[in-house]
């Protein structure tokens, strides 16, 4: 019987504004705000990538940001890029399909065959993990078993962040705080999809470190699941 506890150690890392937003507005690239990170914090981000076996973002982040997800500002090897996309909807010009680092696209069994064939022809590994949609706990187990992933970094948007936390798959959170307020009722924040009825449902964190990296405050937490 599969062991659902078999998964990588997961660090969720993100930049956020003082009011907890990831972008200027819905549909805007997070790169707009990331350019305001201090150079030292950019190095920290890339050092963190280099220290991990894999890095994961959602397919919507790929469509909006067209991220490379490689190590460029520090020494070290680029990690395995992991993109959950139930319907295999990765744009043909996506940077994650370039040969500068290996890429795994996790899809559902119902993903269109022509999209899967395109991704494989582009050089990506396509991993079926789930029937109607990607099963994240199953994906985590397959990453350990098939790719030897022991430590993974998540640089996801609000939807992926929520699903990872909802399935209790995140061990640590590291936040880079940007000294801006952008507002906006529908502006994406760190975690989306979270609708709770009482404080008993809150996901609890334990602060373990806080420090300045260049001019940016960085906070680090352990995730405490009851």
What's the layout of helices and strands?
Blueprint: E1 9-17, H1 31-34, H2 39-50, E2 54-56, H3 59-65, E3 80-84, E4 103-107, H4 113-121, E5 125-128, H5 136-147, E6 151-154, H6 158-166, E7 172-178, E8 204-213, E9 216-224
Parallel strand pairs: 1-6, 1-7, 2-3, 2-6, 3-4, 4-5
Antiparallel strand pairs: 7-9, 8-9
CATH topology: Dihydrofolate Reductase, subunit A
Helix content: 10-25%
Q: Looking across the biggest beta sheet, what order are the strands in?
A: 5-4-3-2-6-1-7-9-8
Task: Look at the helices and sheets and give the structural class.
Answer: alpha/beta
Q: Which shape, going by the Cα principal axes?
A: globular
CATH class: Alpha Beta
Total helices: the number is 6
How would you characterize the largest beta sheet?
9 strands, mixed
Number of strands: 9
Mean pLDDT: 94
**Amount of beta strand:** 15-25%
Order of helices and strands: EHHEHEEHEHEHEEE
Domain unit count: 1
> What's the CATH H-level homologous superfamily?
Dihydrofolate Reductase, subunit A
